[in-house]
Each structure stands twice: as structure tokens, then as C-alpha cells.
User: Fold these one by one.
Assistant:
Number 1:
Amino acid sequence: MNTPLSPDDIEHLARRRAGAKLGWYIHATVYLLVNLVWFMLWQFGPEFGLGARRWSIFPVLGWGLGLALHGISVFVLGNGSGLRERLVQKERERLQRGRGPGGT
């Protein structure tokens, strides 16, 4: 029941998917570079009191969670992923069954 995509549709979809993946790669690179600097400060920076350098773990973990969710949205749940396509197909079939003859 899938309608074939036109060459323009394929081009548009390919550019969107590539852009989403490139966005994640840039996000991951910035995450690694910034956290490398934080690690260097934590490891070799001045100590301002008992445990003062341990704060850096919180942004690392929080941002890491955000990066992981970004990756899931791009690579697992993104347009064209197998899981997303299966869910869309199931919804399409369910809606077509519910519509029946003469439905809108």
C-alpha cells in the first residue's frame, strides 16, 4: 500500500535525514570537546574546597542524557526508521479498517 516516492520527494527526504544525522554528529562532537575541557579542569584545576571539583559530573550526565535522547530521535524514531514506519503502517491500517465503506 506504499505509494512510490517521486525523485523530488526522495531528494527532500534524503536531505532531511542527512541533516538530522549531521546535527547529531555536531552535537556529539561539541559534547565531547566541552566535556574534555571540563574533565581537564576537574583533573588538573585548582581545588576550592572539599569536593568542589565534583560539580562537573552533573552537566556531563545531564547533557549526556540529552545527547542520547537526540540520538534515539534521529536514529531509532526518526522519519524512515523501521520502528516508525511499522507504527505508521499499523495506524494507517487501523484507520482504514475503522473507516469502512462510505466513511470519510
Number 2:
Amino acid sequence: MAFEIIKQKFGELTEYVLQESESGNRCVIIPELGGIVRQLSLRKGLTLFSVIKTPPTPLSLQEDTKSASELLFPFASRIPDGQYTFLGKKYQLSKNETGRRNAIHGLVRKHPFKLEEQIVHPDFASIKLSFHLDNTEGYPFQVRFFVTYKLSADGKFTVSYSAINEGHEPCPVMFGWHPYFMLGNEDVDAWKIDIPSSQIVKFDDNMIPQGVAPFNEQLPMLLYKNELDNCFIINTESAAVTTRLISDNQHVTLNIEQETGEGKFNYLVLYTPPTRDCIAIEPLTGNVDAFNNGEGLNILAKGHTVDGTITVHLS
């Protein structure tokens, strides 16, 4: 098995391709556009599946408003009116959600990340990126954010993040990843999904949490004519849980595993866009509006770090 990392142009953008020659497994990363994963291809048997959907051209990718594959930090999902209170102080974020009045999906989207490290090993290839938040509008804290993408010989792709408080005061942090997954050319209606949760978050008309309800659907759940835009709570004593996206027609299952436990990925957002050719499966470390409700919010003291890992593979 031979791994390599190739640097190449995608329009005016520069991207890095991590790939393994024998299997054809590959991922494509764009550091200067929020450090996103533009492509991810994984093999099962004779078939190489493209499993992440992003806009197809450099311009459409730069102009994308649907957060395809974006890293969501220091908060994910919505903060109503962009306002939150932390340790008795009120803060105002920019209200950037299209058609609504909320702040959404953090402060690192579409910003250039710094390339920290590239590793090519007989058993894997990896790339590490960073972004420094320093007294950003509405978030007057100093936090260094890292993400490492790793493609391994066992066919697994991992997204590992960490964040360290480099300031003098405690700061709130939350992380999420926003990929749209697909399986070949099938539509969402051909798939089933196994959701590792028995509790669903109730939303108001502004998609802000208003409590919790039991989630009693029979699993795996058919996605046929089923529209999802929901957040689920992960309650488990295990170190990780897996969301499974199942195509019976193609005899393949996409597994998205998220670390669980204190400070880890204990929430999950699922969304089926109107195109119904993909599904967003978004592991989160906190609930929607965690900056206000505190549910899953990590509070970092000076010099402290938080981290977690998401793993994607086919079976």
C-alpha cells in the first residue's frame, strides 16, 4: 500500500489530495476555504463510492450558503438574534443566517486555515490545519483551533479536532462538522438510516430548542418521503456511537462514528435537503443554541484543551 499527498490547483484555490494508490481511497482538502473536505471517496469491494457532496466548481463552492462540509467553530447551528450570555456578560454576534435573524455555524467558515503538518506513512496519510480566533466580533476570546484529517489503510477516514484557550479568561466552545453524505447516484428515498438516539430535541418556529421528546421510530428508519431537520441527543455509556446510512440496493452501509462522553460529540443533527440526493449527518459537541442553554457546552479555562474524533467508513 502506498499513500501520497498531492498539492494541486482547483480554479484559484489550492487543494491537497490524500490518497492510497491500491484502493483508490482519497480525500481532498482545501485549507484556504475553511479547511473543508471537498471530496471523499472510499472503496467497498469493486466499487469506489464518492460519499461527500459539495458544489462542483470553485466559484459555486466559494459562494455556497449551505455549509457543505464546513467546520463549525466555536459554535454550531443557531444562536437566536446572535445574542448570548456567558459568565454574566452579554455578547452580540453577527446575524448571518440566510432568511432568518440568527447567528449560525461559527466563525471559521470560508476563512483561510494554516497548514501545520503533512504526514505520509505506509499505513496512512494525514494533514493538520489550524485557525486562530483572536478577539473576533462577538467572541472576544483567544482560541487556537486545530483539525487533522487522516486517511488510513483500513479504509477509515477521521476528522479530529482540538481547541486550546490561549487567552486569560474562560471561553465557551462548541464544534460540529457539516458534511452532506451520498451513496452513489441513489436518492435519499432509496436509503435507510440507523440513528443512535432515543431522544429528539423539540424546536420552535425559529429552530431553537424548546425541550426534549422521546424518539420512538423503528430503526433502521426508511427515508422514503421522510423529511428530517432535527437534533438528537446521544445518551450512552459507550465511548462512541455510529450513525448508519444503508443502501440495500448497493449492499453498502456508510458508518459515521462519533466519540461520546464528557466534552465529546453527544448531539447529532440530521437534515435532508430539498434536492433529496444527499443527507447532512452532523455530529455536534453541544445542542443547538448551546451558548445560551449550556447543553453540551465546553467551557475552557486558560491553557485548557478540548478534543474529539469523527470516523467515516464503509461496510
